[in-house]
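Hey, I'm writing a tutorial for new members on how sequence and structure tokens pair up, and I'd like a real worked example in the thread rather than a made-up one. If someone can provide the structure for the chain below, I'll link this post from the tutorial.
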Amino acid sequence: MAASAGSLKVLSAGAVKRGVAQIAKAFERATGTRVSVEFHTAPELRKLVAAGETADVVVAPPAAMDDFQKLGRIDPASRGFVGRSRMGVVVHAGAPVPDLSDTAAFRRALTAASTVVYNKASSGIYAAKLMEKLGLDKALGAKIVVVDTGSAIMEYVAAQPPGAVGLAQISEVMVLIDKGCAVKLAAPLPDGIQNVTSYDAAAFAGSPSLDAARKLAANLTSDAAKKVFAATGIS
């Protein structure tokens, strides 16, 4: 359900977590309105909203936003662009950085890995398709591990001996590194196979605090916000 008067609830995709959290805190300080944020994968957001979950603001990929708009769940006038997230390769903090200069090098690095891990979110769906496209799904076989969330990718790689490789949103890698997780970003995916995911923000049409929700959505899509997001790997 949406937050009570004097507070706002945000449903957000996890890849933009650091930027959304920072902007929400700044909004709280500036307005005195409490903001709570729930982070989910994009597929989970779709399921929640389709099942009737309500909030005041939502941050999600454009395709999901298009669905929410068709359902009449968001205020179209408040919808705006947040930023884009790119994917990278993550390895154990104590592991050597593999050559990832092009698609052929990427294929060699994953073939040599002890484990390749990705998640069930939008980036993981892309990773699975990429494995199939490059013929790595069959080559790697049981070495592929699928986890639920972006943070679980880094936690898995950190818990393994050096040799495991994760495919994750760069912004999520940075969050876990900041928290002390024993991983490092080896490199973004090579340009030829890079996946870029965009994110939008909008107020929920049924928010009981619609004016405040619109203001928070505007803050999340402002020029000032883009600088905040850029510092977290979202550009």
